[in-house]
Amino acid sequence: MRIKPWVRDLAVYEPGRPLEEVAREYGFPDAAGLIKLASNENALGPSRKAIRALRQAVGQMHRYPDGGAYYLRQALARRFGLSAAHIAVGHGSNELIALIAHAFLEPGTSIVMADRAFSVYRLVARLYQAEVIEVPMRDFVHDLDAMLAAIRPETRLIFVANPNNPTGTTVPPGALDRFIERLPDHVCAVVDEAYVELLPPRRQPNSVQYVRSGRNVFVLRTFSKTYGLAGLRIGYALAPKEGIAAIHRVRQPFNVNAMALAAALAALDDEAHVRRTRRMVARGLRQLEAGFDALGLRWTPSEVNFVLVEVGAGRDLCEALERRGVIVRPMDAYGLPRHVRVTVGTPAENERFLQALGETFRERGTGAARE
Ligand SMILES: *Cc1c(COP(=O)(O)O)cnc(C)c1O
Asked: Is 50 exceeded by the pLDDT of residue 369?
């Protein structure tokens, strides 16, 4: 087959391992006893309002979805003080990243991203044969000044994940304002806020104002993390009308399915679920941090539902934990072979993970710190 060389040679994104896959591999009778802390999913599950909406919607599944996502875009427009023309919906925010790349990138263009930022940016840029300019982070935080300085005449997109996955870090308040202010006209910023609703409300950056004032920016959000709907695949982009119009041209007419639209609309209304999730995450972070301290492990302070922790040989540790029925994420794809990323679970899941971690270290006779 004559596959395009840049497609043939493209790295494949390695997702968190599904529970059933690990159960099959290690001979567990089923996935019920296993825990997955590998994909930053919401350990509380979907909002009950979303589940009710899904039950109601299921009888209409012979119909195509509303390709214009009318009700959801209206609800989002009201929430953010924008119009529906500022909003596009995608099959997860991952699809929106790919659609933005589709609209902006071609051979001879480039993107700027941080070296430890979400790896999907790099993959989609390569898919359109754009060059990837990687800028080192400082203490696992985006170095926005260095990123601005790395922009070249052919640069089209600059990506900032805020908070960032896998580091869990957020840029200092005010820094993003200055960054957007100084952005040259030929570059569009993609501010990926997949975890923003998990921050305490007073700490949430006000990126929507950039869209309102017509800046060259896409703000990306998702229902996968805080809202607990990762399995349905739905996210959205907020951007000036010209940017959204471009997304509508490159997307498929029914890119978001009807179940996802119904659930997202209901979940958006479930503030109580969001608050419960925030509380669980804050408590779980403290629990994990205390556990890491007790084992003498270095971790990166996080404000969201995952933590990057230095453990020594990360991939080996993941395998040892999987044998004990606990799935976490290796980080070698991010150039961090000595780290793993752990999603905050329920208190019981966190406890079980910490126990398995302690056992693994005792079995090897090492903690990372003592290696
Ligand atoms: C999880 C994640 C996404 C993608 O989520 P979708 O499920 O595709 O909406 C996007 N960006 C970051 C930084 C993420 O961690």
From this structure: no
